[in-house]
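Dear support,

Our group has been running a series of protein-ligand predictions, and this particular one with pyridoxal-5'-phosphate is the one our PI (initials K.S.) wants archived with full inputs and outputs. We had some confusion internally about which version of the output was final, so please treat the block below as the authoritative record. The input we submitted was:
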Amino acid sequence: MRDKLLDLESRSRQLEPGPQARAKARDHLVSYSENFLNTIEDVKAFNKTDDQGVGLFDAPIIEDGIGIEEAIDLIRENVDTPGLNPASGGHLAYIPGGGIYYSALGDYLADVFNRYAGVFYASPGAVRMENMLIRWMCDLVGYPPESHGNLTTSGSLANMIAMVVARDGKNIKSADVPRSVIYLSKQTHHSIDKGIRVAGLGECILRFIELDDLFRIDAAALEQQIEQDNIAGLNPFLVVASAGTTDVGAIDPLPEIGEIAKRHGLWYHIDAAYGGFFILTEEGKTKLRGLELADSIIIDPHKGLFLPYGLGVVLVKKVEDLKRSFRFDAHYMQDAFAGPDEISPAEISPELTKHFRGLRLWLPLKLHGLAPFRACLEEKLLLAKYFYAEVQKLGFECRLEPELSVVVYRYVPKTGDANAFNKRLLEAVVADGRVFISSTVLEGNYTLRFACLAFRTHLKIVDTLLDVLKENVARLEEETV
Ligand SMILES: *Cc1c(COP(=O)(O)O)cnc(C)c1O
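Confirmed final output from the archive:
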């Protein structure tokens, strides 16, 4: 048996590359990523290729390993070339991503050290760091000391957790579901609907409240509907507002909805995945008044703090509500919760073993300080105002003044169908590839969207978009004559 063990040991030790092998792999990887970062301004924001990464299938997972060069070649060709380049400042579609570099270094350290961030007993420092970040975000939104939250992988998961906590907070049992009512709007992000279904609330009555002229929930209509539902013997229990809708960046009337929720005893959830971190700017702080009234809030550092994908946050005003939904008991964990002086993520979240994702947020916040984040967010708000003004000078119509950093715009051609024209215009912009834009449907009209949240988006890129739009409008107008 000892011989067998030694033989297995020598083979399994291949999983521990020595200093030279580590240096070789690391240097190759660093030089690949450095080259990417040094040329990021020249790389296309969108790259339509024919093969779309299918070459990966020619290199299946087999017994033998390959060299780092070969591995990087596979990644370059199949992963990092086709499709959207979210690291580009030319990403002006959907809600743009980012990928600040120090986050990558945080992930690197988190992965090398592999601290167990689920339980205080295992890694008091990691848990303190994550709790400290959650505390910082609770303070940002104006939450009291008894608030807490979870660092999740995304806003969608954060919304799902909030739906579960709302359900339990209002004690909705399965028998109550058919007569229980949730209030939201047609502009509510679809992850709320997913969360509702995952939480077992899919058969609740959903009331999509009318929107006002600015695509915000009409608070008076909301209250009227709640009153009607009460009279009808139903059980109104949850209202969801958006602080920055994905579509147009509209902010629902947060203080008014807060008062209504309080008056009628509803759980108040605010989805601030996109808009929340604008609270770091003076303008955002004013516009996001009322955030603190919510029972739960989600915000997305991988949007508003420009982190690489993989970090959303749910904040809950009373930690007791998180404990109620996610408490657990396991004999094999009996030593782990012997009176820690910090709450462990595992006690108040659906996860046990988890990535130490706090480090990817902490490191950039500490290395940069907050000031450049504030500046970058303020710049995005101002770029939206700039684009709004300039695109109209090119003859585009803008249905709304930008509330945050999304602008909706469409061109009405001299002749022909405007919807088809704007669709062709979008296709031309995407084919050009320097900037990447997306569209939506507003009041039945195919409408283009400018969404500015990538940290690498600066004046020059917005000017490039304006140029590309101008060129293509002229060309398409000529073609249709
Ligand atoms: C992006 C977004 C979400 C979903 O967040 P993910 O991190 O993409 O899962 C939820 N709500 C709003 C308003 C969003 O913009």
